[in-house]
Amino acid sequence: MTNAAALATSPSIVSERIQRIKLSPSVAVRTIIAQLREQGRRIIDLTIGEPDFSTPEHICAAATAAMARGETKYPASQGTPALRKAVAARMQADWGVSYPVGQIIVSTGAKQVIYNALAATLNEGDEVIIPAPFWVSYPDMVVVNGGTPVIANATPEQGYKLTPEALERAITPRTKWLMMNSPSNPTGALYTREDLEGLCAVLLRNPHVWLMTDDIYARLNFTGSPTVHPIQVAPALAARTLLVNGVSKAYAMTGWRIGFGAGPEPLIQAMAVLQSQSTSGASSISQAAALEALTGPQDCVQQFAATFRERRDVAVRLMAGIDGLKVVVPEGAFYVFPDCNGLMGKTTPTGEVLRTDTDLTNYLLREAGVALIDGTAYGAPGTFRLSFAASMDAIAQGCEGIRAACAKLI
Length: 410
What we know:
41% of the residues lie in helices and 12% in strands. It is of the alpha/beta class. α7 links the parallel β3 (127-132) and β4 (148-153). 47% of the residues are buried.
């Protein structure tokens, strides 16, 4: 029997746990885009969830200097003391909360911080409330760690923001966490102080529920007013809140893979134990770069945010002019999330009836060469996500391609 035949007849090597999750949709669509480009197709990629800017030179220089100093050994598993001190200073500046370095952990991206927290706290069957639309990885990270995602839907009429009533309905005795993301990926929704007051009141009435805030887009805020955090509204929640952030989005450092978390010491130490037995911590060179990002000149962040706001305005104006789409203006991050239900039931030039948002995004990729991600991936059927982390030309050409393709529908 050949090795291939033996493998085909043997029990699956893949665990039941992993069989319950799927490849990240954003990773899957990148594979399709690469295949189409290899075939010679011109594709306008508006799926990308990362800034299209280069990392600022002073940050890169700090990494080079760290290498020259020989900082190429294993760093402290929980993060270098210097970077954790800088994270604490940033938390103080942003939210007015004070964390000692023992309550801060540095990981390989904010995604690992979230994963570590779920792995360190969830028992089989524990529930995690996730407002929808949500970032694609939240539910599967809960599932792979034995938890049960509880989806609380937020509608366009609600600005895609969780309401206190919906939160109250979702809470059960098994609830372990509420996950929040403001500004939101994929909608750009930004919670106001008034929004948070109602949600915090519900959390204060349910002391068994912990709060995890994914603040990775907090500094990409287009409102002109500072982003408000739940623990500013209800300081008592700090005792059961994990703040998650990183340098990827605000500083154009996605490939450096540095995220950090701040929270109660027992939680952070449990996450540190897990990290010591998995990745052993984040790259020492990347941590040196992140230190410079947090402590060096901050004008790059303002420049990036201003550019994204200009692109947002163009993308919203062009998308709002397309029949069949409804657009909620995003207040942060770098995504537009149109409702496309007005196009469902229409027929393409080749006779295909569009029944789902996935049908629509597939049609736009084939017909217009514009790559988007369907809203079903984010728990919101009847929508799609367009990233304006792209050049102004790509945004304009992409939106024109979408308009022209939609005009062919009957």
